[in-house]
Each structure stands twice: as C-alpha cells, then as structure tokens.
C-alpha cells in the first residue's frame, strides 16, 4: 500500500464523514513479519501484524512475554528491519531503507524514552536534551534556547546544569522525555517508561504524556501495567506474534484511571506528611 493509500484508509477508518480534515498517519504497519534465523530453527517473532497509528494517537502495546512487543518496538524505532511487510514512517518504508538511512531517521525522527532513562552521566540536563542533535552537527543559539525551553516544559527549568546523578529517577525520566522532543519526532516511543518509578512519580510522568498528547504529540508505549495502558487512547495487544486485539480505551475508563492514580498519589503524600 502506498503512503497516500494509507492516509486515505486512515481517513476512512478514523474520521468518518470528515473528508475536509483527514488525519495523517504517524506510522502504518502492514503485514509485518520478523523471523530470527538461528542455527537449528527459525523463530517467527511477528507473523503478519497490521495497524495504523494516526498522528495524535496514544497507543499502548501490551501482550505476554514473548508475544513480539520488543521486536515490534525495535522496528518502530528503526533499530531493525522486517523480514516481510512494510512499516511506513511518513512516505518512507523502513523495509526498503539501508542501515545508514535507518540510523539517520532514527536519530532525526524518533523520540525514545526507555525504562532506564539512558542519559549520559557526564552531561548536564541541557546537554542530554541536545544529544539527538549531536548526530546532525551544529548546536547554535536557537537549539540551546529550544533545549532550555524543553527542560522548562518538563519542570526542570531550575536544574539545567545538574548531572543525572544529582537527579531523582522521575527527574531523569523528564530529561529523557524532553530529549525525545528535541527533534520534533514522528512519535514518542516509550518502552516501559514508568517501570523503574514509584507510583507518585509514575503519575507525574503519565501526566506529562497526557499533556503532550493533548498538544497533539503521538505516543506509542509498551507496558505490562493495566493502569498505565488505561491512560492511552487505544490498546494494541499482541499474542504469539500476531495482533490479538486492537481496542480503543473508553474515555470514562481513562478518566477513572487518571482519577484513581491521582487519589492514590494524594493518599501517599498524606501518609508521608504524618
Ligand atoms: N535476537 C533474537 N534472536 C532470536 N530470537 C529472538 C530474538 N529476539 C527475540 N526473539 C524471540 O522472538 C520472540 C518474541 O520476542 P520479543 O522479545 O519480541 O517478545 P516480548 O513480547 O517483548 O517479550 P518480553 O515481554 O518478555 O520482553 C520470542 O520467542 C523471542 O525468544
């Protein structure tokens, strides 16, 4: 399917009756297969997965261990190529890209947020936020201003010169989120972003994702936690390398999940005051 067909199909699937405002796709995945060829066997980690992610969507990818989540994430992040099928980023099919092209698009157009933050210990907050630009060369006054703005955006305006070891886990994850936005990515790709965080900090990070998504940012997040997935707009479930379910999250369930987490945080903070 061409990108244009994909956009059209997204329009018909996602915006019935709104031909004047088609939603473009952040990515379109068609019949995606990934086989790992080992000495004695071939592992079929993905066996024909198809789904689209319109711009502005917030997708949680779930599934049991071994269902293919990391394999899919690696391809969404341009870290690996499919065996068959296509994965479109804009007009580009990653299946047809060279390794150099993949590396380029990875550094320029994907915003990664990892469970373990992956910050560079020797660099300050602002310098860590600028890391995606290192691959492209120049960091001028405009880029520095933007990285400071992003640090402020995630509530770290008073920590610009701090090193990661001087920050809490939640603060480090905020730096990672700011870094993920530096290149105006197709989407933020988050792998268990709250996996190392306590519930108060988890709530802070999920609130930042809520706000970014409300501003139009596309978020694709892998999680094992139901209460994290319920904060997304849609849950894609994999099973045995296939798409098992692809369901929207009821807005009432989203709001209830948000409210439950807020109450939980207030309770923890009250207990901490005692
Ligand atoms: N590099 C590899 N070489 C061979 N097999 C692999 C490789 N990576 C993953 N697999 C296999 O592919 C299948 C899917 O693995 P994947 O890591 O994508 O699942 P997952 O859903 O992310 O699991 P988990 O939740 O445990 O991280 C598994 O059977 C796994 O053993």
From TrEMBL:
Keywords: ATP-binding, Nucleotide-binding, Transport
Matching CDD domains: ABC_MJ0796_LolCDE_FtsE
Any Pfam family hit: ABC_tran
A GO MF term: transmembrane transporter activity
Species assigned in the record: Roseiconus nitratireducens
Family (UniProt): Belongs to the ABC transporter superfamily. Macrolide exporter (TC 3.A.1.122) family.
Record's keyword annotation contains Nucleotide-binding: yes
SUPFAM superfamilies, sorted: P-loop containing nucleoside triphosphate hydrolases
InterPro entries given in the database record: AAA+_ATPase, ABC_transporter-like_ATP-bd, ABC_transporter-like_CS, ABC_transpr_LolD-like, MacB-like_ATP-bd, P-loop_NTPase
Domain ABC transporter: 27-265
Ranges that cross the membrane: none
Chain residue ranges for the region called Disordered: 1-22
A Gene Ontology term for the protein's cellular component: plasma membrane
Highest taxon of source: Bacteria
Descriptive protein name: ABC transporter ATP-binding protein
